[in-house]
Amino acid sequence: MGLIKQCDDQMGRLFAFLEDSGRMNDTMIVITSDHGDYLGDHWLGEKELFHDPSVRVPLIIYDPSPEADSTRGQVCDALVESIDLTATFIEAAGGEVPDHIVEGKSLMPYLHGETPANWRDFVVSEYDYSSTEIARKLDLSPREARLFMVADKRWKFIHSEGGHRPMLFDLTHDPNEFNDLGDDPAFHTQIEKMYQKLGSWGRRMSQRTTKSDEQIRAAIENPRRDGILLGVFDEGDTGQKQAAFLQDNKAGPLPDIAAPKETED
Fold first, then answer.
1. Could you list the pLDDT tens digit for every one of the 265 residues in the chain?
2. Strands annotated E in the chain
3. Which of 13, 145, 199, 228 is spaced 20 to 30 Å from 48 by Cα?
4. How far apart are CA 180 and CA 198, in angstroms?
5. Domain extent for 185
6. Does this model's pTM top 0.85?
């Protein structure tokens, strides 16, 4: 409770400064957290698993723009991830979201009362617990001590890389997540569907983070021909484009290089 009081006091000081300086009208304010805390829920503490007390985090956004007036005080039930904040800040600042680098989706349409096209239909959380006491007690290698959660508005699915069977919760009929359906054969099909969603997430464009699609297309259409051509003796060893480049950039004939003389022992 003391930490909550401290946060409240310090935010009060910040908001007072923004009001007094006139910056409240051009400052986006976001209050969120990196994780929740069980605090005894499910007989657990801290954040070990993906039940709602741990994985559902607060997210309050104040957008000072007039376009956001229609949604003030409203609650949005869209499937949102923390990584969406980066994209939101970029768009709010007038930039274009580089989706080959930023995985999240901008929340600006929701803030302005619009429905974005092609919004996600599930969310994902990851947990690497390789350096925890739990991994040691379970005798798991660092690469095995990983968990993945996939959740939509009806189901929550948890995959354990360490070999434990998956967990499944029906959030409609079991909102408190007490009844794990992961070993019930009746829900095998649903588990397979959640694995398909996890697979599609695993195939996302998360590895190429240096070049946009436009840069790649431009490089293919207009390839660079400068550089070093290995194994070329004269222009006849190259293609037409390379030969033309060599002719245009020729600095003069190459000097003759005498073969090394043999020496007597």
1. 788 899 999 999 999 999 999 999 999 999 999 888 888 888 888 888 999 999 999 999 999 999 999 999 999 999 999 999 999 999 999 999 988 888 899 999 999 999 898 899 999 999 998 888 888 888 888 889 999 999 999 999 999 998 789 999 999 999 999 999 999 999 999 999 999 999 999 988 776 667 777 777 777 777 665 566 677 776 677 777 667 766 776 655 555 555 556 656 5
2. 29-32, 59-62, 123-128, 146-151, 155-160, 167-170
3. 199
4. 19
5. 121-222
6. no
Give the torsion sign (CA, 120, 122, 128, 133).
Answer: positive
As to burial, measured by CB atoms within 10 angstroms (0-12 exposed, 13-18 middle, 19+ buried), residue 47 is middle
| Euclidean distance between CA atoms 58 and 35, whole angstroms | 9
Instruction: Look at residue 248 and tell me if it is in a domain.
Output: no
Q: Is the dihedral of CA 196, 197, 199, 205 positive or negative?
A: positive
Please name the residue ranges forming H helices in the chain: 2-21, 52-55, 84-92, 108-111, 133-137, 188-202, 213-221, 240-248
Through-space distance between the first and last CA atoms of the chain, rounded to whole angstroms: 90
3-state secondary structure of 233: coil
Inside any domain, residue 192: yes
Alpha carbon dihedral 112, 114, 52, 120, in 10-degree steps, equals: -130
Place of tokens 């006139």: 22
The two tokens of residue 74 are 């409203």
Tell me the CATH number at 172: 3.30.1120
208 in a structural domain:
yes
Query: Structural domain tally of the chain?
Result: 1
| Contact (CB, 8 A) for 62 and 11 | no
Whether 126 is covered by a domain: the verdict is yes
